[in-house]
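sry for the spam today, last one i promise. struct tokens for design, 137 residues
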């Protein structure tokens, strides 16, 4: 028997592809685990440069971007490029200082630590709004 199911039966279901960007590999792993019930393919990047190369490679269904990471490419630039590529973005951060920046970017935002159900529900909400410009007043 085939484990994990056969997606070739009936209508092929397009697997979603999510990017997680955080310089803490443990957080990337935890977020990826939290997203496993969605069945999405998870790609991780540990800095902005890696995130840009993933964004350049092809379409993504969602990017989850930490607001504070080191390196020459800022989180704001990663968010901007994702938007240019029509990829919805959720930002996350662990410090109060970056919460304001998260709101300034006008993206759905999670403050660490967050629970798996909070993340999955925000992911579903964000994906459901795809195609509708997110306007936060």
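last one done:
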């Amino acid at each position: 028997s085939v484990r994990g199911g056969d997606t070739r039966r009936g209508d092929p279901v397009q697997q979603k592809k999510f990017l997680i960007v955080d310089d803490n590999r443990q957080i990337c792993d935890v977020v990826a685990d939290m997203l496993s019930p969605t069945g999405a393919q998870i790609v991780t990047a540990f800095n902005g440069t890696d995130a840009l190369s993933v964004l350049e490679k092809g379409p993504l269904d969602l990017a989850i971007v930490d607001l504070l990471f080191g390196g020459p490419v800022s989180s704001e630039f990663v968010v901007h490029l994702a938007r240019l590529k029509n990829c919805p973005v959720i930002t996350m951060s662990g410090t109060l200082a970056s919460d304001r920046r998260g709101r300034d970017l006008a993206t759905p935002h999670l403050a660490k630590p967050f629970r798996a159900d909070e993340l999955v529900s925000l992911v579903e909400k964000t994906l459901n709004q795809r195609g509708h410009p997110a306007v936060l007043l």
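The radius of gyration is 15 Å. ok im logging off now
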